[in-house]
Design a protein that fits this description.
Distance between the termini: 58 Å
Radius of gyration: 20 Å
Shape: elongated
Number of strands: 7
Number of domains: 2
């Protein structure tokens, strides 16, 4: 069985080699591959070994810490990519869309920019909420493919709160120009890691809806992030030209 872990505190190839050496000495571990670039360690084990034990072994080295990203048992834990697999995501987005339409009806306006702002507000609130249900699990999993979180693990803990904040800013129409700029930056940087993961054909769990949904990373996530960036860009253009 293979397990993939994120690593914090690793800054050079010497760090990677020290971690590989120490972990490979465990009797439960048959193979260790540490990637400095991705800041991950992939362990092949012949029997279960807990995360606490692994970190206990690394303690003498000082600053390194492992976090669980994803269990990999010949990729059997992730479902095949199909319409059925992404049904929960489609259902949630449909609810958000109808919610945005209802808000437009309540506001008495069906202007495209207003509908988009309500959709994005509800989107960020909903997706941030699901991430907050298991904040630690999300942060550890997100670190497996998100570039900013790999460099600064605390970002994984802050990200859901940023989403919720953006959601409230959109719904209350506060500082629209800066809200759209922030969305483009946050989503733009986030989608880079997703694109890399899909391009490398890595079989990894997507945590866009937190850890409660078993969704494989795919082009669906790229499209989802891309649409949000395009909508924010269009609303920003409207804000500065009108």
């Amino acid at each position: 069985m293979k397990h993939s872990y994120s690593i914090t505190g690793m800054t050079c190839q010497s760090c990677a080699e020290k971690i590989e050496t120490v972990l490979s000495q465990l009797e439960e571990v048959s193979e260790v591959k540490v990637s400095l670039e991705e800041k991950t360690a992939q362990l092949t084990v012949n029997q279960h070994v807990g995360l606490e034990k692994l970190n206990e072994v690394l303690k003498p080295l000082g600053k390194y810490e492992l976090g669980m990203v994803q269990e990999m048992n010949h990729a059997a834990e992730l479902p095949e990519k199909s319409l059925k697999t992404y049904w929960p995501l489609a259902l949630i987005i449909t609810y958000i869309l109808f919610g945005a339409i209802h808000l437009s009806w309540v506001r008495g306006t069906y202007v495209a920019s207003s509908l988009m702002a309500d959709f994005m507000g509800l989107f960020f609130l909903a997706f941030g909420f699901f991430k907050l249900l298991d904040l630690k699990g999300f942060a550890q999993s997100y670190r497996g493919y998100d570039l900013p979180t790999k460099a600064w693990p605390t970002w994984g803990y802050l990200y859901p709160f940023v989403e919720v904040s953006l959601g409230l800013l959109y719904l209350y129409r506060l500082w629209p120009v800066w809200t759209n700029i922030a969305t483009i930056l946050v989503m733009g940087v986030s989608v880079i890691g997703v694109i890399q993961t899909v391009a490398q054909k890595r079989k990894i769990k997507c945590v866009c809806l937190g850890t409660g949904f078993n969704l494989p990373m795919s082009t669906v996530t790229i499209i989802e992030d891309g649409v949000m960036i395009l909508m924010a860009g269009w609303m920003l253009f409207r804000s500065v030209t009108l």
